[in-house]
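ARCHIVE CARD
Drawer: 12
Card no.: 0347
Subject: one protein chain, sequence and derived structure
Cross-reference: see card 0346
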Amino acid sequence: MTRTLPIGALIYFFAALMLSLYFAFAAVQGPSGILRRVQLEAETAELVAERDRLQAEVERMRNLTRRLSDQYLDLELLDERARDVLGLVRADELIVR
């Protein structure tokens, strides 16, 4: 004797299958899915690297500012900046272009 599944069981199985597929798709592609998480981690790594680069630049600028301040004057740095900004040279120097 052959037994077939009733139509209600087939509908229930199909609905459960469709819900499972939907949730699996949402877990991978959804707004808080795996792919979005990987993308956010990559963006976070880029932003951390940029932040570190900017912090190093700020520290370099703080150092230069301190070296040109009234409390601590670095004459070599002052000479270098005057040459660069004003285009000054010493009488004993030779300019090669």
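Annotation on reverse: The mean pLDDT is 88. DSSP finds three helices and no strands in the chain.
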